[in-house]
Design brief:
Elements lengths: L10 E6 L4 H17 L22 E8 L2 E12 L2 E9 L8 H15 L4 E6 L4 H9 L3 E3 L10 E6 L1
Parallel strand pairs: 4-5
Antiparallel strand pairs: 1-2, 2-3, 3-4, 5-7, 6-7
Length: 161
């Protein structure tokens, strides 16, 4: 008897201009999810967001993941200082979780950091995002002391590439 297997979803990863429509749609969903999940909500201005130019070449990049042609995830990289980058805006839509898309974006951002001659990447996250904590720890990130003034962060991580 032949077993039936689910077809693998078609996922495509693309670097995009962070001001592009699809990028802004993903970021809006990311911020909406933070507002829903964080104790006390989320205020973008309180977060002191970096300018979009931090996520464009040569300073950084923004990746989107398309699942069957629709954007379902994002992640960004920016340069903090020579040799050191920061990963920001990691998000996967609820309907696309569990497919390894977040891990794939993280790996692609690390490769992009290496291509840009960054030897270290840092990131932060909130205690309300246990799946992010699991991902970062399982991907080899180690907790470090606070490296920024993000008022929503409870955990800071670093990885040597």
């Amino acid at each position: 008897m032949k077993s039936l297997s689910r077809p693998q979803p078609s996922v495509e990863f693309v670097a995009v201009d962070p001001s592009a429509g699809e990028a802004q749609e993903c970021l809006a969903q990311y911020f909406a999810e933070l507002a829903a999940r964080f104790d006390g909500g989320f205020d973008r201005e309180k977060d002191a967001p970096p300018p979009l130019t931090d996520f464009t070449s040569p300073a950084g990049c923004l990746l989107l993941a398309h699942l069957d042609g629709k954007p379902v995830a994002c992640g960004a990289l920016r340069t903090l200082e020579p040799g050191v980058g920061e990963i920001k805006r990691m998000w996967v839509s609820s309907g696309a979780r569990g497919l390894g898309i977040g891990r794939s974006i993280l790996q692609r951002l690390e490769l992009e950091a290496q291509r840009r001659k960054l030897h270290t990447v840092r990131l932060d996250t909130n205690k309300a995002l246990p799946e992010a904590l699991r991902l970062y720890r399982s991907a080899g990130y180690r907790e470090i002391a606070r490296f920024n003034d993000n008022p929503y962060a409870h955990h800071w991580f670093e990885k040597t590439l």
